[in-house]
Amino acid sequence: MAKLDHLAIVVGNYRASRDWYVQHLGLKVEFEIPERKTAALQDDSGLTLFVSESEERPAARSCTLYFQVASVTATHRELTARGVRFVHEPRKEYWGYGTELLDPDGYAIRLWDEASMRQG
């Protein structure tokens, strides 16, 4: 079976997106290519998210990113206390139990945790 290890999204400002993903979701900067306005951000499992700046951004966000966290409720509470705005609070959705927020470019970010997902 193949293993997905890189994903790229087009953003309006790669530095702002880099900082948002690092600050709010804990991704780490793997490397940057400033002349290409690109940052590579890595999660704990080794998946790399490329944020690449372009003036020709897609009109509609073409993907939704799902991030597993230790606790949806605790993460929602912590980020809300830091001023992060959510689309909705943790709740049951068609994709499972979790919460949703938007990154600086409007990409949907859905947070879920293993325990809540099992409880349904």
Keywords for this structure?
4-stranded mixed beta sheet; 2,3-Dihydroxybiphenyl 1,2-Dioxygenase, domain 1; single chain; globular; 3 helices; alpha/beta; 40% strand; 2 domains; 8 strands; 23% helix; 120 residues
Overview of the molecule:
This protein is of the alpha/beta class and 120 residues long. The protein has 2 domains: 1-56, 2,3-Dihydroxybiphenyl 1,2-Dioxygenase, domain 1, CATH 3.10.180; 58-120, 2,3-Dihydroxybiphenyl 1,2-Dioxygenase, domain 1. It has 3 helices and 8 strands; from the N terminus they run βαββββαβββα. It has helices at residues 14-25, 72-81, 114-119; strands at residues 6-11, 28-33, 38-42, 48-53, 64-68, 86-93, 96-102, 108-112. The strands form 2 sheets. The chain has a 4-stranded mixed sheet with strand order 1-4-3-2, with helices on one face. It has a 4-stranded mixed sheet with strand order 5-8-7-6. The protein starts with 5 loop residues before the first strand and ends with a helix.
